[in-house]
Amino acid sequence: MKVTVVGYWGAYPEKNEAATGYLLQSGKHNILIDCGSGVLSKVQNYIPLTEIDTVILSHYHGDHFGDISCLQYQVGYTRSLGKRSGTLDIYGHNLSSEFNKLTYGGGTIGKKIDERTVLRFGDLSVSFKWGNHPVPCLAMRFEENGKVLAYSGDTEWSDKIVEIAENADVFICECNLFNEQFGKAKGHLTAGEVGKIAKMANVKKLVLTHFPHYGDLDNLVKEAGEEFSGEIVKAESGLVFEL
């Protein structure tokens, strides 16, 4: 599988960038993992929108699904022009009324996921664990031919995140807080906590993402590295991982 970072900001995108979104390509499948504000524009640098066949959402905050309504318009528009055949599946949990909006206009179909779900796309399987966030949020584990990509979604400390990341080749983990903010903010991880999770889970490569809009982001890498001795990478637009 091939994973491209489309956007990596928390809350809102910086100028000419995007909030959270990742493009996973496996065989003939092009899967968009989260679709935050700005992602729909940026992902077109890597693939035409008509070639996206699946979207998987962690939760329904705008920095993770804010561009979904525009994607739904795009699907309907291109279907009417004969440029897209079939429907677009959008997977999300149903613990919010937003789930009901995922099915729209006959072009997009909302499909429920939870901890019991295992999705399969050829040789690729996807499983889920609940994180610890003010709203229900799913972490994800992608496995293909012995390789593992894990994604935290948004979360505070949770043993389930350690489980989802166990022995991952690449672990994309939110890193919204500096260590000095430990215990002062809800719903997100400090860099030190991210490092501890990566160490406990025995991951090979840690990718920090979902950044704050203040402070020296390089310090997040430093603080995570105080706990985790493996490779640490700071997410950036266009960064690619081949697994």
From TrEMBL:
CDD domains: RNaseZ_short-form-like_MBL-fold. The keyword Hydrolase applies. It holds the Pfam family Lactamase_B_2. Keywords: Hydrolase. InterPro entries: Metallo-B-lactamas, RibonucZ/Hydroxyglut_hydro. Residues 18-210 form the Metallo-beta-lactamase domain. Gene3D superfamilies: Ribonuclease Z/Hydroxyacylglutathione hydrolase-like. PANTHER family: METALLO-HYDROLASE YHFI-RELATED, ZINC PHOSPHODIESTERASE ELAC PROTEIN 1. This is Ribonuclease BN.
